[in-house]
Amino acid sequence: MATDARSHDEVMTTELVAVVVAMLGDSPHVLTAPETRERPRLPSGPLQTQHRTMQAGMRSWVEQQTGYGLKYVEQLYTFADPGRGGSDARRIISVSYLGLTRATIGQGHWVPWYDLFPWEDQRFAHEIVTNTIAPALDKWVAAGADEEERTARRQRCDADFGLGEYPWVPDLILQRYELLYEAGLVAEAGGDHPALGRPMSFDHRRIVATGIARLRAKSQYRPVVFELMPEEFTLGQLQTVVEALTGQNAHKQNFRRFISQQNLVEETGSTSHATGGRPARMYRFRREVLLERHIAGTHVPVTKSR
Fold it and tell me: Are 16 and 50 in contact (CB under 8 A)?
């Protein structure tokens, strides 16, 4: 009876986990705890009695473990699936948060998120899907118990990875990772495919996928991308960041037209010579538009690459 009580206490432990995203150079990165281990983990810690709220507790753990204080934060999801947290029973219930910040190279332990999900950068990674993922999924489909299961698996693979007649949908990153996990292809599920990204401790890569999916989806209807931008930037820099977050190339003229139509930015009066060519105008985000009206986010008018 005492054993059952201890097990119940372990299962009910609540852990706070943070997916903190920043742009370092032209690449989106995820903040990790500064531990030396083969598989990095996200900043995290148990909810404690001195924490006024769960968000306050999460902010406290992030600051203690990484030195970063967060501004933009929103709750992501509560994970309570048995068997997905490894041998650490405390991780059965994980309350996750998404945080956006501005960072400097050399400050903190950051992992490029395309090191974790290389297939997600569709600007450059078509061959990973074509040469590695699709053939591996074909074997998983063929291993289905019967025709009905094989058909369902085929449809799921095609829809999630944009195979056959299906388009690639950037927001489906979590579904793609879950599919690779179910098929036993990623390292966390025992797979041995180095091309399928760097594994993380526990189920933290799954939590990162949830955060990226939220950020990609939300950027379509709210201008959250500006939380990752410096105070002043060129339109070229803005387009680069949006492309990096979505993993898709944007049509330059259409992108600038959309930003202009939404009245999201305003000129600062200064210019940048960083490109080495014609000076580029500098802009800032018009935060007052958040109060003026409900505005769209930063859509990517994609260029057709396949």
Answer: no
192 burial (CB, 10 Å; 0-12 / 13-18 / 19+) is exposed
256 vs 266: CA distance, rounded Å: 13
- Interatomic CA distance for residues 217 and 212, integer angstroms: 8
Smallest CA-to-CA distance from 220 within 286, 285, 295, 108 is with 295
Which domains are delineated in the chain? 2-113 (3.90.79.10), 120-194 (no CATH), 228-292 (1.10.10.10)
> How far lies 211's CA from each of 29, 47, 100, 214, 279, in Å?
12, 20, 10, 5, 36
Tokens of 48: 């404690």
Query: Which residue, among 62, 51, 50, 57, has the nearest Cα to 18 in the 3D structure?
Result: 62
Output b/e per residue, 225-239; b: 16+ Cβ within 10 A: bbbbbeeebbbbbbb
All residues at 6 or more sequence positions from 24 whose CB lies less than 8 Å from its CB, including other chains: 103, 104, 105, 110, 112
- The secondary structure of 237-261 as a DSSP string is HHHHHHHHHHTS-B-HHHHHHHHHH
Structure tokens given for 291: 């109060």
Q: The pTM is what?
A: 0.89
Question: Cα(first)–Cα(last) distance of the chain, in Å?
Answer: 61
133-183 residue pLDDT tens: 999 999 999 999 999 999 999 999 999 999 999 999 999 999 999 999 999
